[in-house]
Amino acid sequence: MRGLDRRQLAGLAVLLVLACALPFLVANYRVFQITLVLAYAIALLGLNMLTGYNGQISLGHGAFYAIGAYTAAILMDKAGWPYWATIPVAGAVCFVAGFLFGLPALRLEGLYLALATFALGVAMPQILKHKSIEEWTGGVQGIVIVKPDAPAWTGLSQDQWLYFFCLAWVLLLFVLGWNLLRGRVGRAMVAIRDQPIAAQAMGVNTAMVKSLTFGVSALYTGIAGALGAIAVQFVAPDSFSFFLSITLLTGVVIGGLASISGAFFGAVFIQFIPNIADEISKAAPWAIYGIVLIAFMYTMPTGVAGFVRIARARLARRRGGSTVR
What are the residues whose beta carbons fall under 8 Å from the beta carbon of 194, sequence distance 6 or more? Predict the structure, then answer.
């Protein structure tokens, strides 16, 4: 990947080795939870491209997560497709949906765009319940997915295999996302976010970049939804309520806006913090969740990734100062 020195590449190699060893060190339920973390990380990277790097606020990305999940579920349940073949199709469907939604959204900015995406997130569960498509979506009952078995030659359990399957997609999409955001397109996205008039004056096709960003963001989220559906083995309209969109946006902010690594921190937060809050207080888990969220925002206003970046810079300055002395 462009822009990485040897030390950073070595660090990534160590993280990859640890990630490969992790499913053999924890119970199957923890493997399942970490698999969902990987799926959420893909969705958060997609949303961060749109909001963090391009400056377009979305309160409806849970809808694209739902579209990706239902695309995979319908293809597996109704058409008999293998699970692995449904992932790219889910991404392609969401890319088209996101691109088409992004075209009329070009006339909207700021809070107006947020309200438009809010409407999308609110409407999606009702659309999935509609009688005209109930034959495909299963209506309020949803669709049950059979968990795929691991190939016999791997010797892995179902949960371990799905973990590695999701990990492979994470590696692919994060490498592609890294190169996209560090390249010319990424610079154009940031320029539109910071100085849209200047970007247009420099020859950047702002309309096309914003629409494509919306499409790519939806593609990432749709793939995440498909992976999440296969891991959970079930999709239903109420699983993709507006709260999911808020949860994804919360993960982006907690992880760090305009940060690739922040997607992992945010995914860990939205997967595990609600469970921890429920263990602390069965009576008021969301009150505990709110307190933790406020504490994160107060202590890490730039997100976890921003906090780590600042801590590294301070440590480097201290080491430099001690060397000079």
Answer: 55
Q: Where are the domains of the chain?
A: 6-146+155-254
Q: Could you report the per-residue pLDDT of 103-161, keeping only the tens digit for each? A: 877 777 778 888 889 999 999 999 999 999 999 999 999 999 988 999 989 889 999 99
Could you tell me the pTM of the whole model?
0.93
Count of C-beta atoms within a 10 Å radius of residue 206: 15
Name the nearest CA neighbour of 301 among 262, 266, 256, 265.
256
Each residue's pLDDT tens digit, 190-244: 999 988 888 888 888 888 899 999 999 999 999 999 999 999 999 999 999 999 9
CA dihedral 298→301→307→311, nearest 10 degrees, is -80
81-104 pLDDT per residue, tens: 999 999 999 999 999 999 998 887
DSSP class per residue in 145-167 = -PPPPPPGGG---HHHHHHHHHH
d(CA 178, CA 14): 18
The type of residue at 304 is V
Helices (H) and strands (E) in the chain, counts: 14, 2
